[in-house]
Amino acid sequence: MVRQSTHPQSVASLDPVWDRIREEAQEAAKKDPSLGGFIFGAVLNQPRFEDALMHRLALRMANALSAELIQQAFQDALDADPAIGDAARADVVAVYERDPACNRYLEPLLYFKGFQAIQTHRMAHQLWKMDRRDFAYYLQSRSSVVYGVDIHPAARIGKGIFVDHGHAIVIGETAVVEDNVSLMQEVTLGGTGKATGDRHPKIRHGVLIGSGAKILGNIEIGHCSRVAAGSVVLHDVPPNRTVAGVPAKVVGYAGCAEPALVMDHQLKAEPSQGVE
What is its EC number (predicted)? Predict the structure, then answer.
C-alpha cells in the first residue's frame, strides 16, 4: 500500500479531489485570515481526505463522547471498509456538480450538513456491521440533533449521493438508496405501520426525489425516475417515470436519462402521452 504524501503536487496524481480541496482551503485562508486556524485545523494540517473528514465529523458529533473517541471509532470503520473514503469523494463531486450554490469542493466538507450527515451515516453503518450498535445509535441520535437528518444505521446508501439542504430527512432501517440519487429537504423513506422485517423503500440509481416527498413501505422506485415535490408514494414506480400527487400516480416519463444529475423538478406537458 502506497502512503500518500501531504504535498499537494504529490497528491494530485493520486487524489484529485483532496488536492482541489487543499488548494481551495489555502485560498480561503489567504482571503480571510480570521478563519486561518479553523481551515488549517480542518484541512491543511490533515494528511489525507479521510483524516479531514473524520476530524470535521467528530467535532460535529462530540457531546457526551469526546471528539477524540469518536474519531477513533471513525478510524476503526475506515480500517474495516476503506471504500467509505471513495464514496465520500463521490459525494463531494455530486454536491459540486448538482448544487448551484456550491462553488468549491471545500464547501461540503466544511459547511454543508446534508453532505456531513451522509458521511456520518456511512461511519455509523460500518460500526453497525461491526456489531458496535450502541455507538452507531449514538451517531444516529447526534446526527438527528446536529443536522436534522435521521438515518437508521442499518440503512444501505450508495455513493454519489446529493442531499440538498439536509433538513428533516428520515430514512428507515431497511431502506436502500443506490448510487447517484438526489434527495431534497423533508424527504421520508419510511414504513406504513408497526410491522417488522423488510418494510422500507428501495430507491434505485439515478432517482430524483423532490422536497417533502414521502415514500412509504417496501416498494421500489425504479432507476432514473422522478418523484415530484410533496408526493406520497405507496406503490412501486417503474423505471424512467415521473410520479406526482397524493397518492402519487405516473404522470409521464422522467424527461431525461438521469434525473438525479440534471436536477430538473418541473413537470412538463407531453401531449403525445396525454400528460397535462
Answer: 2.3.1.30
pTM of the model: 0.91
For all residues of the chain together, what is the average pLDDT? 93
Handedness of CA 33, 37, 41, 47 (dihedral sign): positive
Instruction: Please give the full DSSP string across 94-120, using - where no structure is assigned.
Output: HHHHH-TT--STHHHHHT-HHHHHHHH
Q: Which H, E and C letters describe 194-235, residue by residue?
A: CCCCCCCCEECCCCEECCCCEEECCCEECCCCEECCCCEECC
Q: What is the pLDDT of residues 170-180, one digit of tens each?
A: 999 999 999 99
Specify which residues 252 forms β-bridges with: 242
User: What local confidence, expressed as pLDDT, does residue 195 receive?
Assistant: 87
Rg (CA), the chain: 19
Q: Is 205 exposed, middle or buried (0-12, 13-18, 19+ CB in 10 A)?
A: middle
Q: What kind and span of H or E run contains 74?
A: helix 67-80
Q: How far is CA 114 from the centre of its chain?
A: 6
Residue 270 has pLDDT above 60, yes or no: no
What are 183's three cell numbers?
434527495
pLDDT digit string, tens, across residues 187-242: 999 999 998 999 999 999 999 999 999 999 999 999 999 999 999 999 999 999 99
Confidence check: pLDDT of 169 > 50 = yes
8 A C-beta contact, residue 22 and residue 43: yes
3-state DSSP assignment of residue 62? coil
- Nearest C-alpha neighbor of 183 from the set 84, 106, 114: 114
Contact 130, 149 (CB under 8 A): no
